[in-house]
Design a protein that fits this description.
The protein has one domain. It is built from three helices and no strands. The protein starts with a helix and ends in a 22-residue tail after the last helix. 46% of the residues lie in helices and 0% in strands. It is mainly α and 83 residues long. The protein is elongated.
């Protein structure tokens, strides 16, 4: 609701990644990829674009979890972490 009131959605993507990574790290695991989806009542291109920017930034901050094929794809495989 706050993002909607402010019209600022990039931080929503960052928070999505942060909450998922936090859950993984809390149990002593190392996140290697992120699989998620966005469910909306009505698609708004600008809003979804801003969320995507935030997802990419969150992945970068978490150690570059962004898959090489982008966030729009699906690939059932393990992605090796870059050293």
């Amino acid at each position: 609701m706050i993002a909607s009131m402010l019209g600022k959605y990039d931080t929503v993507g960052i928070d999505c990644v942060a909450m998922n990574v936090n859950d993984v790290v809390c149990v002593g695991a190392t996140p290697v990829s992120l699989v998620d989806y966005i469910a909306v009542d009505k698609a708004d291109a600008a809003m979804l674009d801003a969320i995507s920017v935030g997802l990419a930034e969150g992945a970068r901050r978490a150690g570059d979890l962004s898959p090489p094929y982008g966030f729009g794809g699906f690939r059932p495989a393990t992605i090796a972490r870059r050293e």
